[in-house]
Structures are given as C-alpha cells and as structure tokens.
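CORE FACILITY INTAKE
Project code: CF-77B
Contact: R.S. (postdoc)
Sample description: multi-component assembly, two entities in total
Requested service: structural model of the whole complex
Turnaround: standard
Below are the sequence entries exactly as provided by the requester. Do not edit them.
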Amino acid sequence: MDFAHSFALIAPELLLTAAGLALLLVGAWGGDKSARLVAIAAAAALFGAGFMLVPGLHFGVDGPATLAFGGLIKVDSFALFAKALIYLAAIGALMVAPAFFNSAAAGTERGMRAEYPVLMLFAAVGMSIMVSANDFMTLYLGLELNSLSAYVLAAILRRDTRSGEAGLKYFVLGALASGILLYGMSLLYGFTGGTAFTAVRAGLTGEMGIGALFGVIFVLSGLAFKISAVPFHMWTPDVYEGAPTPVTAFFATAPKVAAVALTARVVFEVFGAQVDAWQQIVMFTALASIIFGALGAIGQENLKRLLAYSSINNVGFILLGLAVANETGVSAMLVYLFIYVAMSLGSFVALLMLRGEDGALFETFADIRGLSVTRPAIAWALLLFMFSLAGIPPLLGFYGKFVVFQATIEAGLVAFGAIAIAASVIGAFYYIKFVKVMFFDAPAGVVTGKSGAAHWVLLGLTAAIVSPLGYLLTPSLTDLADKAAASLFLAV
Amino acid sequence: MEGLPILSLMMLVPLAGAMACLFAGAAAARWIALGTTLVTFVLGVVLWSNFQIGGAQWQFTERAELFAGFTWALGIDGIALMLIMLSVFLMPICILASWDAVQKRVGEYMAAFLFMEVLMIGTFSAQDLFLFYIFFEAGLIPMYLIIGVWGGDNRIYASYKFFLYTLLGSVLMLIAMFWMVAEAGTSDIPTLMQYSFPPGAQTWLWLAFFASFAVKVPMWPFHTWLPDAHVQAPTAGSVILAGVLLKLGGYGFVRFSLPMFPEASAQFAWLVFVLSMIAVVYTSLVALVQSDMKKLIAYSSVAHMAIVTVGLFAFNVQGLEGAMIVMLSHGLVSAALFLCVGVIYDRLHTREIARYGGLAINMPYYALFFLLFTMASIGLPGTSGFVGEFLALAGIYQTSSLVALVATTGIILGAAYMLYLYRRVAFGGQVHEDAAAMRDISAREWLMMAPIAASVLWMGVYPESFLAPMRADIAVLDARLAAAAPASDAALTAGAPRAEAANALSHKNGANHSSAEEGAH
C-alpha cells in the first residue's frame, strides 16, 4: 500500500480536517469574538480544498490510480465533481451566516458562534468521504460525520425553541435512517461476505436471494431518508423551517448533493448487476417525490417550508436521471444537481435578505406582498429563481429539466417521462404564486432592512447563473458531468 | 441583403429596447418602446421586400451551433413571413394603445411587450425544434406578468389559468420533441418536415403536439382560459393575445402537425372537425349573450379560430390558403376590435355594453372605424374576413359538406352577435349622459386605427399581395399531404357530357333568325 499516493488523493480532506481542528482551537481560545475570522478562514480552507480538485476535474481521473488505502476510498471524477459542488455550497452557506447571526433574526443570541464554521468544515469532510467511499465502512463513517455535524448545526440557536426542535427531529429521524441503512448493510454483508463495493457487487450477480433483496431495499431506504425523497421525506419541512435560515440553505444544497452522489455510486457500483431490482424503486421514488413535493407545497404559507417541499420536488427530478440507469442519465443528473444548488442557494439567500428595519427576518407570503415595488432587485431575483425552478425557458432551470427528460426519453421510458413532466405542472402552481404575491399584490411594506454585501454578491452570482447567461456555463458543465459519469461507469 | 442577419437583428433591436426600458423612466420608456417597435417594423418591411417569391423555400437562413446542443437556426418561408409581419405591424399599435392607459410601472410594462416581440419573432423564425420550444414557452413569463400586474379586477385568476393551461399543453409537446429528435437524429425543422415517422408513433406525437396547440389556438373545450385572460388583460395585452399569440397554435399546426405527421393528421381530422363544429356554433351562441364587450370578442375569436382549424384540416390548397388568410385577417380585425373597446374603456372605465349607446352621435369617426371592423369580422366582401372565410369554407366543402354546412352557420351567427353588439353600442338613443359626453377619437387613436383599417381593406380587395408569398409553401405542404388526404365526401364523379348545352334551342331557321327573335322580345 502506497501511503504517499493515498494521502495525495485525500489532500483536500486532510486540508479541511487540519483547518477544522486548528480553527476549533482558535475558537476555543479566542471565543466568539474570533467567529468572523474563523468563518473567513474556513471559507478559505474550503476554497483551497476546492482548488485542489481542479486538475483532476479538468483532465478527468478514473481507473485503479484513484483508489486510496487499499480500495477504501475512490477519488474519481465523479467524486471530484460532487466534492466541488459541496465545497461551493458550503462556502455560500458560510458567506451568508455572519450577517444572519449578528442581527435580530438570531433572536436573543446575538453573534455568530465560532463553532458554526468549524462544524461546517467537519460536515464538508464527512460529505467528501461519503462521495468518495468505495466500501460500506467508509460510507458509514462519512455519513455519520456529516450527520452529527448537521444535527448540531440545526440546533445551533440554543435558546430558540424552533431551532432546538428542528435539531431534535433531525437527530431522531436521522438516527433512524442511519439504523435502517446500517441494517441493510449488515444484510448485504451477511449474504455477500464483504463490505467493499466490489465484493458486494461480486456477490450480487445472478439470481438474487430474498435476503439480499431486503438488504438492497434497506440501503436504498436509508439513503432516501438522507436525500429526503418520498416516502421518507416527512422530516424535511419541519427541519427546514426550524433550522436557522443559513443552515437551511446549507441543508438544501451540500448534504443533498452528497447523498444523491452517494446513492448514484451505490446503485451503479454495488447494485450495478441488479438494475431491475432497484430501477423500479428509484422510478417510484422519483415520481412520488415530484407529485408529493408539489402537492405538499400548495397550501404552505411559510416560505422556508415551501422551499423544503420544493427541494423534495426537485429531488424527484434528480432521481429521474438516476432512474434512467445509464451514463447519459447520470450526466444529466449531475447537471441538474449543479443547477439545483444554484437555484436553492439563491432562493435562500433572497429569503435571508427579507428583513425588517431591526434586522428581523420575514418568512411568510404575507410579508413579501408587493415586494417588487419596495425591493425590486430582490423581487426580480426571486422571480428568476421561481420561474427557473418551474422549468420555464429561457432560464437555466429549464436546461436542467431538458437534459434529464431528454435522457429519460432516449432510454425509452416515454410513459414515465410523460407522467413526470405532467406532474411538474403542479409544481409550477406554487412557484408562480411567489411571483403573484411579489408582483401582483399590494405592497405590505414591511421588508425595509438593508442587506450586507456578502448577500448581494451571492444573490447576484446565483441570479446570473440562473438567468440565460448561465447557458454560457453549460459546455464546461456538460463536459465535467460527462467525465464524472464516465468514471462511474468505468468500474461497472 | 446577403450576409446581413436580418432576423437576428429584428430580435436584437427589441431586446435592446426592452433592456433600456427596464431602467428608464415612464416618459422615456414610452418613446423608447415606440421607437424600437417602429424600427423593427421598418426592418420587417425590408424583410418582406427582399423576400423572393418563388425563390428558395427557406430564406434569410442563419445557422450557428450554440452551446449545450442547441442550434441558433433561423429562417423563414412565406407563411412565417406573413405572421412575422403581423407581429411587427401590431406592436407599435400596442405601444400606442397603452400610451395613456398604463400609468403604473411603465418601464417594466414596455419591457414586457418588447420581450414578447422578441419571442414572437423567434417562434416564427426558429428552424430548430428546441429553439422553437424555448421561444414558444418563454412567452409565458411576460404574458403572465402583463395579465397579472396590469390586468383588471380578476387578473390573478386569469393569469394562473393562462399560465397553467398553456404550460400543461406544452410540456407534453416537449416530451414528443425529445422522442422525435431521438428517432430522426436531428432537430432541424425543415428536415423533420420531410421525415416519415412510423404511423403508430405519429398518433402519439400528433396528440402531444395537439395538446399544446389546441390550448393555444384555442379549440373547444380547451378555450376557457381565453375569455378570462382577454377580459382581464390590459387593452394592448388583449391585442397581442388575439392578434399574435393565438396564431401560434395555427402556425404550430401548419409547421408541425400537418407536415410532420400527415397520416396522424388525416386520422384525427374528424376530431378536429367535431371540436371545430362545436366551437363555431357553441361559442357563437355564447358570444350572443355576453354583456361584456371584451368577452364577446373573445368568444368570437374562438369561433373564428375554429374556421382556421377546419380550413387547415381540409387537406387542400384552398383550405390551407383560407386558413392562413383567416389567421392574418383575424389578427388584424380582432386586434382592432379590442382597440375599439379600449378606446371607450379609457373614457368610461367599463366594458358593460349596456352602459353605452348612441355613440354614433357623439363619436362619428369612432363609429365609422368600429363599423368597418365589425363588418370585417362578419366577413363582408371587400374586407379581409370575406377572403379568408370564403377560401376556408370552399376548401372544407371539397372534403366534407357537413362540416362546411355547420361551419358556415358561424358566419350567420357572427353577423348576429356582431351587429347586435354594434347596434347596442353605436346606435339607438343616448341613454347615459356620461357616455354621450365622450370625445371622439384623438390623433393618437387615429394613428392606431387607420393603419389597421387600411390593411383590412387591402387584404380584402387585393389578397394576392398576401397570398403570393405563401403560395409555394402551401403547394409544398399540399403535396406532402396528398398521400394521406382523406377521401372527399363530395364524391364528385365526371358525368357524360351532353351533346349540346342544356339551354340550347332547336332551331330550324338558322342562328340569325333566333337572335332577331330574341331581340324582339
């Protein structure tokens, strides 16, 4: 085993871990006064780690050279793509945090705690391990490192009951999901005699026994919990609503990318020989997520809750690409993931900018009435995000749906695609409700507070990506996604 | 004109104008919008005058491979040319119509209209399937805002209905497009128009496209969004909706359904006929009992568009030509009628027919224009409506005399509801004082009405100007459809000719005598 090679492969994770530990010490001695410095250093560390991914992303890496520590970890193009997205999303969530925690929005607990960026870093390390896992043991380690950090993040406003409730709910249900996943893994181990992906795959060829099938189903259910796909979605609205908004923005993006990438890797690399066994499960979950995500959102008054349902809805479209079960489908799914991250990060940043004179946050439809008159820039940006989420051309959200549905139809799943796209019209209903409230209704005039530069930068950036200008990104995005998808299928 | 990308230019000018309007003040935005639409119209005139009748089928083509597998492929044939001309002609009139009527958020309003113009020109000139879809669908955003922000009291409901109806229709079409591109291996529209899809697949593809176009046309029973959207939209919004957006459905049939799926079109012709017949009779009767002027005209639009679909599915040259002329004529006439409603709405702020009466006394010029457009809507010879409806009905008569019979009642009913409307608004006594005190049309309103009136008469008296550019394209389409055309129920059989004419008299004394005898009578 060549340790130098292995360590070189996990250099980004090493950097993030070292930064996390060092910043933890800074936070411990410097107290919350150092929080801003810690946040900037954490963002820099994430940026540095992301920068390390560039050569691999650019040239594309696959094959045996990507295996580290005797096949426990596999750093191929697919893992690099997911990591890059995760780091970008985490940087975004860090950028918006200080302004939130330093305002009245944080309740009685003014001031960002130094733990916040540190936990973010550890979560990012955990997600990095998840997406590059090549063994069920590594997978579980990464998943739990991420989840434990996430539970604390959800409850980081200790004196806010909603935040505490969100943390507790997330913890209980997340633990249940982890248990289900672990049980599935143990079943697979029992029936195939290995925990390495290659070993389990080798044991799953040919006719599959009922026990192994249970293993597959349990593993998929556990992962569905993590990506909040129907029917394991019920924790999402509560947690998204209760958690502090920057944390919600983080939950809606990075962990989702990690969990989706992990699911893709598991179904292709582990269950790749049993496509029939999982394809219909994924198809059902995708359709159910699209439909229930859309229906659940219709009656919502709280914007964060609504965006939670919207994320369930979007997971359905992402899984649509997975259900296609070929390289084009995975590439389409990765493209959609990128666009989804930009759209949800943008929407949450816009929500963070809906503040009153004293800095308190607004988060219901009643508060954003007539926003286009009082705060036109935020309203127009939200309009772009909502039409993009609804998949209306020429916004970039249309391109995401375009590639996913194209892959679906090319694979011959015409009826499946037709039902899914018809269901997407239900989703359009509440997205245009956003626009209706902001543009058609008389102004409520409560959103008067100023927003910081970091918010404006992030909002402008995500809005530019979502606008038709974003199509300029698509050639390189498609190229990267193709390379990532190819590396995933090389092993199969 | 070789080398100048005039179609792209025609889209770039309003796009730049829209951007400028977004950041301009109210007064500046009005002038910018008027200026850019006029420039675009001039470019349109240049386009028409450089269009070579009898030249290549696709002219002014542009092609550039874009990112992400999309192709910027533009090009027009005669049919697209006419519809583009209609759009760029109506646009400056729309801007004029909203000059005083729109007072809030003028910049955004004008920008929305200019975006609409970009998208309409794009839709008619796109030669790539997905490019077409993007333009076709993107129009939802500005139209949703136009209805929702500047519309009437019930605008929210109308805007939702408009958005969701049309979205549901189009997404199914998108699925069909993916399938077609996967099957044919190209998204080039001219190639696809000659591609033979397997008949079994054509059925499904046709239905998916029908879902979209039937909503846009709109055909009964998918028309219910139209009266709501029309009534609640501002005047200029109704003009664009009736004048151009409804034509997207008809254009879709001509460009996609008929040439790409000829067998399925023949197979489903009965469906189109049944829906159209119901639409003609039912919506005409509904129009007869409306008390709201805009609603009445909206229902009459459904009836007129039914004549278009009947003509299109007649599968012969007359039917197709007639359908195209009805589309152009309806674009002008219904737009003008909505302007007429807008003119008096601006003065009295009600569309209730009963609140008017005797306008011919205090608004004689207005009454004159209104009468002209009413007659054109009915299809009086000499106006554009007559040419189109006559050709369309003559075309369908060759295919099915029953459909022709039912569709023709639309003209009679049309005369009934339009004349009834005109009588209640313009004739009779001056019942209401405020209505009697209204001023006649202003110079700005003259500028809006007179060009449309001139065009209506031009198309009615000399339709050749409009038919000539389309003739070759319709011939190509007719040839493509010939193999699939359903059998005619007229069952014309060639009889044995008589030896002499039926009115010939048997003469003994030669021709001279008989003429002298006739002369004596």
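Facility notes:
- The mean pLDDT of chain A is 89.
- Chain A has 20 helices and two strands.
Invoice: internal transfer
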